[in-house]
Amino acid sequence: MLLLAAAFLVAFVLLLYMVSPLISPKPLALPGAHVVVTGGSSGIGKCIAIECYKQGAFITLVARNEDKLLQAKKEIEKHSINDKQVVLCISVDVSQDYSQVENVIKQAQEKLGPVDMLVNCAGMSLAGKFEDLEVSTFERLMSVNYLGSVYPSRAVITTMKERRVGRVVFVSSQAGQLGLFGFTAYSSSKFAIRGLAEALQMEVKPYNVYVTVAYPPDTDTPGFAEENKTKPLETRLISETTSVCKPEQVAKQIVKDAIQGNFNSSIGSDGYMLSSLTCGMAPVTSITEGLQQVVTMGLFRTIALFYLGSFDSIVRRCMMQRAKSEIADKTA
């Protein structure tokens, strides 16, 4: 009886693997496609632009700093695969004025054609204890990280639905899957992106438009270096429990998942575990993906409890060390 059940399970799994490609989205062809990357002048955004350019795409880079944009443009152009490819640079703050964002997207489409893929990579991070952060910090991060993704997406989505093709990528963070000490402002702005992405995917899927949410870990970028300047000790120690990724590695995975129309994009074993743990009611691209989440949930939750226990231990140790230091200062 057990052998029969095992055989049935194996047959069922094999059937899922066979059927899965039939219901998965058709991959987006990047050669000749128009890819818009916000926050594309440095870090992950620039590496995503390079990766798409290597595959024959036309690129529109959007960022605030004109000098960095021009420098990124020169670097990207070194990776062309034909003499027809173009890199267009547009300087604008995507988080401030929707009408301005809409206008620059129209300009880009007039020059390079309709947007086939939008990558929302503009963002920033500031760390600190909840009571130490200014209220303006919460407003600023929500504006840059959340509205800075809403505005460009709103500007391209109608055309994508009309053409029945498109990809919208939101670059969140592992801090958008798990709230951590020191990230009360940052995590909340990144968590908001997932809610937007899930709702948007349900709206646009019938039009053959697919949404991808990327959850990169700590990545060696100028933004990460800036973030480290304000990290509390607890946040820094928790971050050090995992390795820092290269932006090129992260970019390759994001582009690969976006092309395939995968809703989730994660990096490494920790990223895979986090994505399975936090999948909730998120859409799946294939039956296989859903089955993997069901099978691994219990094991991953057990592992996660050990992680959470170690994080709590770090916070307690820092608190005790701080208390000892304060007593020593008083008695000195």
Describe the structure.
InterPro entries: KDSR-like (IPR045022), NAD(P)-bd_dom_sf (IPR036291), Sc_DH/Rdtase_CS (IPR020904), SDR_fam (IPR002347). One of its GO terms (molecular function) is 3-dehydrosphinganine reductase activity. Its EC number is 1.1.1.102. Residues 1-25 form the signal peptide. With 332 residues, the chain is of the alpha/beta class. Helices cover 58% and strands 11% of the residues. Strand 5, helix 6 (184-204) and strand 6 (209-215) form a beta-alpha-beta unit.
Which descriptors would you attach to this protein?
332 residues, alpha/beta, seven-stranded parallel beta sheet, globular
Note the topology.
Elements: H1 2-23, E1 34-38, H2 43-54, E2 58-63, H3 66-77, E3 87-91, H4 98-112, E4 117-120, H5 135-163, E5 166-171, H6 184-204, E6 209-215, H7 222-228, H8 233-239, H9 247-260, E7 264-266, H10 268-277, H11 287-331
Helix pairs in contact: 2-3, 2-9, 4-5, 5-6, 8-11, 10-11
